[in-house]
Automatic annotation (TrEMBL):
Protein name, UniProt field: Putative cyclic beta-1, 2-glucan modification protein
Domain of life according to the entry: Bacteria
InterPro entries tied to this protein: Alkaline_phosphatase_core_sf (IPR017850), OpgB/LTA_synthase_biosynth (IPR050448), Sulfatase_N (IPR000917)
UniProt subcellular location: Cell membrane
Main location: membrane
A cellular component annotation (GO) from this entry: plasma membrane
Start and end residues of each Sulfatase N-terminal domain: 341-638
Cited CDD domains: LTA_synthase
Disordered: annotated span: 1-64
Keyword terms: Cell membrane, Membrane, Transmembrane, Transmembrane helix
Lineage: Bacteria, Bacillati, Actinomycetota, Actinomycetes, Bifidobacteriales
TM annotation in the entry: 71-93, 122-140, 145-162, 197-218, 238-256
Membrane topology: Multi-pass membrane protein
Transmembrane keyword on record: yes
Amino acid sequence: MPDTGNEMSVRDEELNPTTSHAQDQDAFLNGPNGQDGEQGGARVATSDDVAQRADASDDAEETPKRKGFPLWLYALLFVIFDAAMVMVLQWGVTQSSTRVELSSPLLGVWGIVSKMWGEQNYVFLLNLLLLGAIYAVVILLFNRFWLATPVLMAIAIVIAVIERFKIQIRYEAILPSDLNFLGSNTGEILSFSPTGAFWVISGSIVSFTAFAVLCIVLSHMDGRHGRIFRFRNAGLSISLRLILLAIPCLFLTLYINQVATVDSWANTFSKRMGDIPSMWDSVYDAQRNGPLVSFLRQLNPKVMEEPDGYSQETMDEIAARYASDADSINAERNAYLNDNTVVFVLSESFSDPARVPGLQVNKDAMPNIREIKSETTSGLMLSSGYGGGTANLEYMGLTGLSMANFDASLTSPYQQLVPSEHWTPTINQMWGAPSNSIAFHPYEPSMYSRATNYKKFGFSHFYTLQAPDVIAYQDKIDNSPYVSDESTYESALETISSNDDNQFIQIITMQNHMPYNSWYANNDFTAHSVDPAAPLDDGERVSIETYAKGVSLTDDATQAFLDELDSLDKPVTVVFYGDHLPGIYSSAGANADNSLALHLTDYFIWSNTASASRGTKNDDSAYSSPNFFVAQTAEHMNAKVSPYLAFLTELHEKIAALEPPVVNNIQGWDRIPEGQSVYLDNEGRPMSEEDFDEETEDLMRDYRLIQYDITAGKNYLKDTGFMTTPSR
């Protein structure tokens, strides 16, 4: 029945006693009778009164004795429908998968509910609360429960279907960056429909139709027809709805704004409810924590605090200063980076087992690489990860930026930062057209959102195990579930040798990824503790022995790869590095004094015979971190630099390596560890920020300004030539 500000006449009440009685029962919802239209206590009829009497008469004829649902029933139905929508969204991200599991098994639709009593994890209730807040907003906007409910259910079903299709095609959940896609490419969505889409869509339509019919039937039974607020004073009704609307809106706004910020109330609340971020795999993250929680957590990541003095004037001054420094460096150099094909090899979990404190392995697992390191630029790389964090090391290597400068809340730039960036300068872009940038990764392209990010970085092809760019060679060794390094190198070599142009090649291997479960036949590696009183347990020992064999296989494959490159008549330079140690050294990790040793991997920069930099060994290469690799490569090749590379060159002279604080356990994905960042000098000794000289302090201040401008600021450096590297 339409709301009006006029009083019902006595005759209206006589015509519709049921409605009048219901209004008396719902005093809270109906409010006091208005007195509009009265003059000196006498009732003055208006044209609105005529319409109101007609509406009242119509309602009386349509629903002669039907009562409205009580508030408690609305509340119960609200919770039931809210839960149904959460389960619909969960269905969208729950599918069977043939992929190699890197974590615990993926949850089914019911799994997110059952773990409340199985694991005391209440992330289902968190999703229920968040979606309930959205549900309340829609109801308050419509003021029609039986209209708002099917509308929101329709939206949930559409999202779930799209999510299901996206996961089936790309094994990737819906991300905030997809909102940009929907805004500019809506017409292309149907082209992503996978096999069997017709039946999924048909089933969804049938399910929604049944739900809509249910809502219509319940609305017919409900004398209120879902109208929650029926104040006769329209102004009072609207005012109360706006006041109540502010509550869920404020909650959602504050939650979205703060949930990605470490130690905020929203972040703490989410963790206590069971949210365990799993940023390496968007599908697993959505299944484990619910798609709504997973999505909202990524909407507003805290990247960096704005450094003091940040402005266009400051950034112009920085660009000019390092342009002058670049000129000085370039006066002494006669080569160009794009004179060579440069290959970055991120070797999964590669490190020397012999350096692990308290551990003894029966023989050298990396004799070839040890020999290579002795003949060229090489050293130890400080890693921010232990047992994980591959993409962060990869990001630093490709951008020259450091995780040490980011806020503790930014744990995964590939998911939290790159998709929303407007400017993403990466080192591969120094080789010009995208056709000169090729990447290889013998695993799923969706991990760490690599497929999306590599396209944004300017790579023309990203060869993985899935279409459209399928990696050529996929052989595995014995019982290992991962593609061998030999096959990965073979795929890359085919591309390098068949192209006369110089290129940038990115390789991310998978052979030595965890877990390590006695994969290899005839493994002759053995490991034991140097302390007889503290022997390795069987699980740790088997993992270490399996891993050591994998390192040995990588050592042989890498030597063979370099031998093949050496036979080419085109100049090639290779940057090889292990991203982190495997998270298997529980005995060594129990001692906090071993933290530095458990975060040092091996790296080298090598050039083939056709390159003028063959046999070069940089003097300052004993220690490094991946953000410095591109500057070191330019030094190794005697190549001219951009102002940005000039800056990195100067910083590396003062600080050999820097990373965020490190820990001896596999890093979680809800924060960077607390404490001071790790800085090493050229001899590998830790440095304290308090002991920096003035020049080092100035360089670090400039680094934060540069990184903030690129990632979270206004990109003042973009048009200054700061990233422009001289080329032939």
